[in-house]
Amino acid sequence: MANQQANYGSSSRSGILFGLAAYGSWGLVPLYFNEMVYGVSPIEILAHRIIWSAVLLSLYLTLFRQWKVLGAVVRDRSKLIRLSCSAFLVAGNWYFYVFSATTGQISQASLGYFILPLVNALVGVTFFAEKLRWGQGLALAFAVLGVTVMTWQLGVLPWLALILAASFAAYGIVRKITPVDALIGLAVETMLLSPVALALLVYWQYTGELHFGKHGLAKDLSIVFSGVITTVPLVCFAAAMRRLPLVTIGFLQYLSPTLQFLLAVLVYREPFGLDRQISYTFIWLGVVIFAGDALMKGQQARALKAKSTRSKEIHSESPKPIGMSQSR
């Protein structure tokens, strides 16, 4: 029992570190796109992210001898169709994320990932017949109110935030119904996207619009490194998912939009006047209610599990009736 607790504690600590690495990286990635690949168009950055991610994942598949596993997935028509859809969705999400980071709209990206858990809850109710708890319903109501206030004050929908949240939620739906390992699935997705990305890079090279190879070694290496910052956080995320309960993951995921928001306001001085403060207050209130509801639900589940375990232990350790033991 002591060894099991020690192993669990070690796994939990490493899971926290992996989670912090994943969500911390995603939170700081706008800084990389703004500083390291400044001047490169979002669509070219996307193409490079796909190509260099595919290269890195190919090395992973070779190192861990996973090509047969990938081949089995590709030969499965149903899985291949679903992963083709998820590839399109994740490419769209990556593009709009880079677009937000390179056009001074990091706060919208932050907003999109703040409301993502709420959108996921709505998706669960709509597509998977999950029951909406009162806390989740109240959180969604505040989020809708916040977006409505922002729309009314700005005169336009925060479309970038909504696209980021909706595209990743849709991506989650497809991956949820596709029984494939996270990294194998990502490898298939990037390899499906790679021919299009490569064709675009060749075309831009032909038309003289390609940035790669024309602005020095440092710029080229920073572009290549976009594949690393795409893949490594996903590896850390997968490792965290295997080691931590979903409630803990649910709290860690707010690190990413929080860091994005701080970058937007403190580093890049994006506007954050009273109008946005009011709308963000409603959204953050919804997030706090949602997180609190998830925490309470997790505590209740653990309490029930502990009670059930104690009940089984007491039942197994209880002495047998004397008469029964004598008859045997």
What distinguishing features does this structure have?
single chain; 328 residues; mainly alpha; 0% strand; globular
Overview of the molecule:
- This protein is mainly α.
- The protein has one domain.
- Helices cover 84% and strands 0% of the residues.
- It is built from 13 helices and no strands.
- The protein has helices at 2-35, 42-63, 67-75, 77-102, 106-128, 134-154, 159-176, 182-207, 217-243, 246-252, 255-267, 274-317, 322-327.
- The model is unreliable at 324-328 (pLDDT under 50).
Cα end-to-end separation: 32 Å
The percent range for strand residues is under 5%
Task: Flag low-confidence runs.
Answer: 324-328
Summed up, the domain count is: 1
Mean pLDDT: 84
Computed structural class: mainly alpha
Range of helix content: over 70%
Concise synopsis of the structure shown:
This protein has 328 residues and is mainly alpha-helical.
Topology:
Layout lengths: L1 H34 L6 H22 L3 H9 L1 H26 L3 H23 L5 H21 L4 H18 L5 H26 L9 H27 L2 H7 L2 H13 L6 H44 L4 H6 L1
